[in-house]
Amino acid sequence: MPAVVLIGAQWGDEGKGKTTDFLAEQSQVIARYQGGNNAGHTIVLGTEVYKLHLAPSGIFYPDKLCVIAGGVVLDPAVLLQELDDLRQRGVSIANLRISANAHIIMPYHRLLDELEENERGADKIGTTGRGIGPAYRDKISRSGIRMQDLLEPEALTAKIRSNLAEKNLLLTKIYGRPPLDPEAVSAEYREYGARLAPYVADTALLLNERLNRGERVLFEGAQGVMLDLDHGTYPFVTSSNPVAGGACTGAGVGPMCIDAVVGVIKAYTTRVGAGPFPTELADETGEQLRQRGGEYGATTGRARRCGWLDAVAARYAVRISGISSLTMMKLDVLSGIGPLKICVGYRTADGTVLKDFPLSARLLSQITPVYEEMRGWDEALDGIKEFDRLPAAARDYVRRAEDLIGARAALLSVGPEREQTIVRGGVFP
Q: Which CATH number belongs to the domain containing residue 155 in this structure?
């Protein structure tokens, strides 16, 4: 049962889209297992640039089964717009399947997300405002609406009426907003259900059948380990579990099915939104990384915070998710920047140097990074196909990062296109 989980090993935005697209060629099935349209995966195919938010990144291969699994929270309006855009650009979506158990983002989720974030004032978490958190909250409280409910009009209307009896009280009494009309919402979502019905399936059954037939399955995560609800820099986290273990619960497969875990990192570190970021560079170098790396969110357009590679955080991600190999993205962005630095520890206020990632967000916001300095290189990397042809300083940088993080970089990205990838070893067992 050759299955690989692909996860972000930093704070998200590592370049998982390109890596998934690259590995999808070797897979028969690609399954997105958590998150929602708060994630954006950018894929460059020749002169065409695609930004996906819900469709699995393997959608560009017409012979692959692409699954949106039950662990995803789904905004049907966003998905339908995305599918329409893909069709208009000549991309087939015939092999897409959506879990009947995927929870649905409703209009009140988006409203409450925005209103709650505004109420936090200076303590904003930095949500995308897409309704992700409130949708997962209703899922946990057992009042969520699932994809299968959209296919049962009478049951859907009853659930929407019940939910809006509570949500409208919040909107009107707490936030001073007008109530939502349950009949209008029901009509809108019944239409979504009718349009998406051909794609709805028991995706856990499909995935297990394919695994039992020996097909290669690639499980695609969104966000990154450092944004995991349980293991990230809480409360500045997402509302789901991007860690490798989330693939089992989100997709409905057993842990013994997973053969390998690929962690995606950048050759430096970025973060979107609020929260501690030890290696952040609020200087000319940070701005240089942002501009050269095009560090703006695919979903929100927000500028990403940029900093040096944090090997302490990446090593934590390796441990938490059992990462067996890495993909290092945007190595080419570091050309012409030097000297380079890698964070190898955190110094606390009393002078103690931590080698392991601390659980306290308060402590993490107060530490000073301990850096190891390395020489840079000036040569462009975008046309290089083999590791041994990289400049010596680039090879040294990659090898030192591997040693510090504790996993080997099987793939190195030296540009945005599929072909601009250096393969140093297989990812699939």
A: 1.10.300.10
